[in-house]
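Annotated sample (chain length 67).
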Amino acid sequence: MRKLILIGGTLLGALLATGCATPAYSAAERSQMIQRNFDYNGAQAVDDWDDLFLLRPASHMTIWNVQ
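Output written by the structure step:
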C-alpha cells in the first residue's frame, strides 16, 4: 500500500509540475499556438466536408494562405 501511495504521489507531482509552459514559450504563447492549430484544423475539416459532399468544385488551386 505504501508503494502505491508513493507511486501515485510521484505521478501526480509529475503531472502538476509540467503544465503548458515550456522553456521556449510562456503559457499564454503556448495557448495561442494551440488555438491557432485548432482553428486551422477546423477550417480544413470544413474543407474536407465540402469535398466529400461535392459542395466546391475540384481544383488544383488552394484557398489557404500558404506563405
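Annotation: The chain has a mean pLDDT of 79.
Annotation: Residues 27-52 form the longest helix (26 residues).
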